[in-house]
Amino acid sequence: MKKRIFSQYWGKTLREDSQQIGCHLLIWHSLDVAAVASRWWEGSSFIRSVFCRNSSLLDETQVKAWVLFFIALHDIGKFDIRFQCKSVEAWRKLSQCDAKPSTLDYSRCQDFDHGAAGLYWFIEDYQPMQEDFDYTCFDEPEPHPLHSWIPWIEAVTGHHGYIRPQHELNDDNLRWPTLLSPSFAERDRQARCEWIEVLEALFLVPVGLSVKDTPPDVSPLMAGFCSIVDWLGSWVSEDTFLFSAAIPKTLDELRDYFDARCEKDAAIVLQRSGLLADAQPYQGVQKLLADGLQPRQLQILVDALPLEPGVTLIEAPTGSGKTETALAYAWRLIDANLADSIVFALPTQATANAMFERMAFLAGCLFSQPNLILAHGNARFNNDFQAIKQRGQNAQGNDEAWAQCCEWLALSNKRVFLGQIGICTIDQVLISVLPVKHRFIRGFGVGRSVLIVDEIHAFDTYMNGLLDAVLNAQYKAGGSAILLSATLPEQQRHQLLNNYGKSVASTDTGTSAPYPLINWRGNKTAGQWDLLDSPEHLPRRFALKLESIQLTDLMPDPKLIDRMLAAAHTGAQVCLICNLVDVAQKVCRELQQKSGPDIDVILFHSRFTLLDRQSKEENVLRYFGKNGDRSRGRILVSTQVVEQSLDVDFDWLITQHCPADLLFQRLGRLHRHERDSRPTGFSSPLATVLLPDQENYGLHSKIYGNVRVLWRTQQHLEALNAQPLYFPDAYREWLDVIYCANEADEPEWVTAAMDEYEMQQLVKRSKARDMLSWAARAPLNDSDEKIHAVTRDGEMSLSVVPYLQTEQGKQLLDGRIIEHLDAFSVREALALNRVNVPNSWRKTLDDPLDEHGVLWLKGRTADGSWLHERKGAMLIYTKESGMTRVIPNEAL
Question: In the chain, where are the structural domains located?
Fold first, then answer.
């Protein structure tokens, strides 16, 4: 191989404070990254299948050759004088040139985007935009199959966070070296063409291909795959990917270098990254159950489900084993090489934390050395996550391999999907289709996983619009999704299933669907499984007494307060669920004022600091969980945070009015577990629903929006007339009627409210479409604030940081002095001490936000509480009640 210009370009340089000197040639770095891709390809049958699924005319070795060929082109934009001049000394040494390009603006070079330039120059090199640049990289006059290369080049050159489309390349900033330094531009072009020739010889020719052949359709996972192997191929350590500036003399030297990096360096970094782990052979759902338990209800259907990619919707009662059903089916799909991992998405941080704790005991059943990762805005403060990470760091050899949690994977939330089991909030999944930088990395992680989404009914119209796009992307990537809910309205059920695959004939018969039920939708087929042929496995039918009490503003009156206290005196575990934090705080104060020392009254909502909320959450599970301390009566006053996925069990449940599906979720916390005995008067489940005594729902309609559903739910409650409500019958009998489109017999005030609500839903759907469209344009930074902004609709919360001004500086609620902390500790302290309050409070809190997006509030101490006064309003914070706002003479 004659001496080539491409050997005179650097790809990586050492930091100024490094003990080593020199640089790493661009060609060596490109082969490093291709080596990681090659090793990963060999280690993952799913990776091989997902790239080969649209390549029926090529064999597996040929598809791999195209993948490695394009991966090795990911940094083609660095063959550019502007990138090389980011380290002028390295460029001079390699090019053996003492002069500087006099026409270059060196400050402009520092902001050079080699990703965008790579795509731009590829198009220019093979399809010049102006006649006077008639570049030809090959002797033959045949046109190059540019149209088939472009999607691949877009994917690999977008590896730094943004896949830039062609239409954004009409930019003189990308073209100006050609205009101002034509000799350097021609040299760069020659280097790029030489490099493509060499890659053809290295990867394509050995498997009977050439650059004249048409590559297969690119996988939607290519950009994410390229980005991750670039991370790993840049993992320089004392024994991996050491820098080299050696100039190759023959093609064999390049081939030997690639083979050596595949054999050693790539293998080491893949092992260290935790990306590869052996799945345990599938052993049935019983392996996931506690000792002595047998599969029940829908769990017996797991082995009947199709072994092919698809979306699965599981509807079953709370506590019926949906989680184990989903995990067992995911295990089957992984065992069949149809996925590499599992991503479990939940609606809130509290439910994600609870699932993470649960999965810590199940992960080892599915994988021999699983990396179990938790991802949400406050995951780094989760004690269980930190403990597992520490056990992984301390593990020797294969000891405690099941608990390994690679530090590399835990460095950022976007890497949560790269372990074997990722637990996250739904936001982290929705980002994969939204305008956030590196979204395609999450898309890759979701695509290679079985995506399990719990509490699917908990998302609003806007989030459902984004979830539709996630399911469609999962279909295109060849991945699978499993959706869990107690039950769904018929229309929403169809909407979710129709996002996967091509249109197929409906399995509905026109009658009410069976319950429980598993619906499955694949590429061209659909299926439905129920328990009608196995009645012994149907959920236990039970009666629940529902009493309705009409009260002004749904507020508990003195009579109900006394009943709650009397129940607690008998040893009962009582829960009141309120729709508003302010209401929960007010009722809790009334109960505490009347309760004696033998009754605990606990408040649980979202308006606490993270430290205090974690403590509250732990206490809720300690007292009301499956094995909770029931030695004395207790009353929990909570908001909606208790209704989703938390395994808690109450003797008596009281709830403010809410839509029927959410009501059923709340009722799932009533007599959740079988117990030998219950307090006197509570041996049978009793639920009390607080209804309005007027023809409107006030602020409660603002929370739930769908007044028609609220009104119909109320009609069903009142029609019971002291008769018991039977489950699981009610799941279909109530929801199919309550959510139907028929408007008959409803009062005018309901119709008027629904007109406004439906207009709002149109706006939300439009916002979702706009956000998805925006994803094709310039992305936002990957920060918690930006993520929340694009994944959630409605009123944003305001983060406030309460503090006391002391002689030493600003003292936070946990006692730390902000001026005594370094930059990292400041961010940590703010995360632990801030409180999220409604954004509407800004009218009395008009201070500017700081660079962290939080509002600092100076207060004083009063009776052990933090207190802040502003414009006639008073903010009070205590560990027991959280943040409370008091405005004289203002009703709640």
Answer: 8-273, 285-537, 542-727, 795-886
